[in-house]
Amino acid sequence: FDSPVCWLRCLRQMCTRLMRGFVVDGASGSVMDVPVPEPAEGEALVRVLVAAVCATDIEIMKGYMGFKGIVGHEFVGVVETAPASHAHLVGKRVVGDINLCCWDAASCGTCAVGGARARNHCPKRTVLGILNKDGTYCERLTLPVVNLHPVPDGVSTENAAFAEPLAAAFRIAEQRVVSPKDRVAIIGDGKLGLLIAEVLGRHAASLGEGTPRPVLFGRHAAKMGLLSSAAQVETAFAASALPARAASFDVVVDATGSPTGLDLARSLCRPLGAVVLKSTCAAGADFNTAPFVVDELRVVGSRCGPFPPALELMAAGLDLTPLISATYPLEEAMAAVEKARTKGTLKVQIRVCSDEAAPELDTSL
User: Using CB atoms within 10 A of its CB, is residue 121 exposed (0-12), middle (13-18) or buried (19+)?
Assistant: First the structure.
């Protein structure tokens, strides 16, 4: 070592705490030793208990967003360290908003507005496991304490891992797309479609008499049978939707993630109605916009939603664990992703560590 700089670099390497994380680079990914993240000002260090595989994670491994690093954004963890102002969170199970906003009202017009616009659309944001921020397929992560939401005591860790996608379903209600007496259709019986049905069924019931039950159009009786009785939705097979129910709905939510689903959504929506896009798909250059123009349809994108009502609904008894198709340990994260890619699979979870035991941190060279 011929300089103080070399000595300092060596000392930092010797003191670096390591953890296990699933690092992706394009279509490949592997579990390896990575440095434990250091919380920035206002951030907490969270030990991950369970991470869940999302369709977005799969798209990232196809090149979406050009992301390289630790993937994943759905999780439940335990707070290990937090700023003094939020010391009450230490030891608590939490879930978290995935968008890290600047919250600088002086320089950011979006954050100055506040609310959902700031939460979802800060132009300076990073996004957990998606954009410039390592994600959840690892033993520890950092998030701003303002992003964290304590998990109610009566909600299991496995159930709480659905909080982020359930919050996304609540975004549709938050956007006030559905009005009293609106006829609502949901297309797609995958995990997101089922969560949307759970939310919008209850939402329709809350709008009072005269608001009909939403209809979930799917392809699998077994999947639609997983809906809770409290969801208050009708189910029907998508193959029989047309022509009998063409132009029959005021609001149609597409949760299929396919151009075919989007076309069905348009066909089911009445003129001057609203089509809500809840999942992304590559429609291609031949996508026909004419029916949307002719019928004057309103197209509404819908993204991340509020966590509090999602956690409240689970605390009130909504059990989503029947949607779990498989659980893998962190060391088998690639197998978990492959399972999630398999046709017919609903939710795949990754068990990172137990609720009680914290993994030891490696400080060896």
Answer: middle
Distance CA 72, CA 134 (A): 8
Joined tokens for residue 196: 């949307």
Residue 191's H or E segment, with its range, is: helix 191-206
The string of pLDDT tens digits covering residues 54-70 is 988 998 888 777 889 99
Q: What is the DSSP string of 199-256?
A: HHHHHHHHT-TT-PPPEEEES-HHHHTTS-GGG--EEEEGGG-TTTTTT-EEEEEE-S
203-246: per-residue pLDDT in tens?
Answer: 999 998 889 999 999 999 999 999 998 999 999 999 999 999 99
| pLDDT at residue number 365 | 42
Tokens (6 digits) for 363: 């400080």
- Give pLDDT, residue 27: 82
Sites in the chain below the pLDDT cut of 50: 1, 11, 13, 364-365
SS3 13: helix
> In 3-state terms, what secondary structure has residue 187?
strand
Tokens of 4: 């103080």
Q: What is the DSSP string of 106-168?
A: TT-HHHHH-HHHHHHH-TT-EETTTBSS--SSBSEEEEEGGGEEEPPTTS-HHHHTTHHHHHH
User: What is the amino acid identity at position 342?
Assistant: T
Enter the tokens of residue 208: 């009072």
300, two tokens: 């509404």
